[in-house]
């Protein structure tokens, strides 16, 4: 009718838009909480940054040793090459095999095969320990031949290289064992992240040993 306002209709429309009339309600402001990190949980990036800095510092240390090795070898008149024990080649094979089993373990983890992951991860840890045992065997063979650390500059560098690498590899074995026995439920780092971070360090130690072995072999 003339003079009649349509305010009631407008109020009904407003109520429907606001959710009072059974219309769709807006989604919660929190989003997908399952994909969000818990408050106070450290970002995985800090673990990647930490292992990167660690690898760089170790690399610089060994590059300094390698430079000293080359300079000393080129200027020394008392350099007596060390005959590398054959067991070093078997040790190298064990270490390379450990990198292979480690990657197979990570693939098993990606496929949600936790049992297969733990078996292959344990094999990797065992191969790492076997490498260190083999290094001690090489030392004993050299000692039996009368080659000691103080015998000459070449033998000094051999013991320094192998000892320094062995100590750092022992740390890697400790990390492998930690991932193997640790329960990661509710921890600040997930199992896949921990496995990936440790794998970076382990592959680096593998490559570093191959470099050192080549250096010692070519520096005879």
Structure description:
The protein is mainly alpha-helical and 220 residues long. The protein has a single domain, classed as Four Helix Bundle (Hemerythrin (Met), subunit A) (Up-down Bundle). The protein has helices at residues 7-17, 45-75, 87-110, 114-144, 153-181, 191-218. Helix 2 packs parallel to helix 6, helix 3 (87-110) runs antiparallel to helix 6 and helix 5 packs antiparallel against helix 6 (191-218). The radius of gyration is 30 Å and the shape is elongated. Mean pLDDT is 85; it is low at 1-40.
Short description, anyone?
The protein has 220 residues and is mainly α.
Helix content: over 70%
CATH homologous superfamily (4th level) name:
Cytochrome c oxidase, subunit III, four-helix bundle
CATH architecture: Up-down Bundle
Number of helices: 6
What is the CATH T-level topology? Four Helix Bundle (Hemerythrin (Met), subunit A)
- Output the structural class: mainly alpha
Question: What labels describe this entry?
Answer:
Four Helix Bundle (Hemerythrin (Met), subunit A); 6 helices; mainly alpha; disordered N terminus; elongated; 220 residues
